[in-house]
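Problem 12. The chain below contains 219 residues. Write out its predicted structure in token notation.
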Amino acid sequence: MRITLPTGTPAELARPDGDIEPRQGLVLFPDIMGLRPLFDEMCARLAAEQGWVVCAPEPFPGREELDVASRQAAMKDLDDERLRADALAAADATGCERVVATGFCMGGMLAFKAAGSGRFARAAGFYGMIRLPDAWRGGSLAPAVDALRSPDRCPTLAIVGTADPFTPPDHVAEAEAAGVRVVRYEGADHGFVHDPSRPTHRPEDAADAWRQVIAFLAA
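Solution.
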């Protein structure tokens, strides 16, 4: 169901069925296109299958009508303080003491930033940007590697494809040097896991990556 966080940001919230006591909360950061049926269904599936309370905040509140090109251009307008406030509000919205985080693409980057906040028990980013792409620089966003180097960082997993231009080997090496666990998928391009409609989708690798992430977040 859609809720509005105390920050004013819309979010999707999904709870386990019946009287199941939630095992933990999960903040799920969508990709750059934000909340849509793909992520509504993902939240519901994870809640039902894992017994987690899942909350997914919209990354562009009030600008949901933007197309992908406009969202790319608007990345410079985003503010780390607001994004952090939304992440913490989404964690609180789960009602769980133990909360973990995950996300995809831009949302993977936000999961890495959340990892350094001190609020999350674990974090896993699917092909999240470790450093900002050139087109996103010049605003108030800091690179995720800063959070990954924080002494407050929780255990963190990065899922990356070796053919992904948004996670080049030198950036991935920086994450590893900071203590992030990295799982590489040979030949996989950006977005190979979460959206079956994408031409880069790889079903077998996607299934394996999901297994890796679920096990990591549940540990």
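Discussion. Residues 2-218 form a domain with the Rossmann fold fold (CATH 3.40.50.1820). Students who got a different answer should revisit the alignment rule from Section 12.3.
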